[in-house]
Fold:
Amino acid sequence: MSGSLISIDPGMVGAVVTYLEMRVRPPLPPVPESSLRLERWDPVDPARFRALFRRVGGKWLWFSRLAMDDATLLAKTAEVNAVIAPDGEAVGLLELDFRTASESLIRFLGLAPEYAGQGHGKWLFAETLARSWRADVRRVRVHTCTLDHPAALPSYLRAGFKAYARAFESFPDPRLAGLLPRDAAPQVPILDG
Structure:
């Protein structure tokens, strides 16, 4: 049995997106200790949000919210929680969307790269699950892709999420569009023709 390759044009980036869900509330483990805390941003300040989004997701080519004007950004954002370091600096992002009845969608979840590998991810993941499973929630969903942190998909699967769909996504390289610096995501080469 052989597969087929899908060509990606110069100036574009491609990723495989995995759609995951959890339909049964798992026994939630205690939230580990952390020097970090979550702070709800309500209302959301677009410039502040974009700066944090870029800091957390630039390494993984997160760009969708960077390409939106303020009105669109405010309409698209759901429940935004910033991860705050002891010095008051925003160093991570958790965005949960409860707009679909009985569902929670983890839109964005991540820490600034310099906070990786220090145990903060376990704390943030536990907080995410605890906050996602509100009393009326019957399904928690998340989408991750091959551009995300390599630990993302295995972490979701270990937590009990099940994959239910997969897709290939291709989009213009956000570095070439000026949404992210050219040196962002060095693990993904720029193909600018």
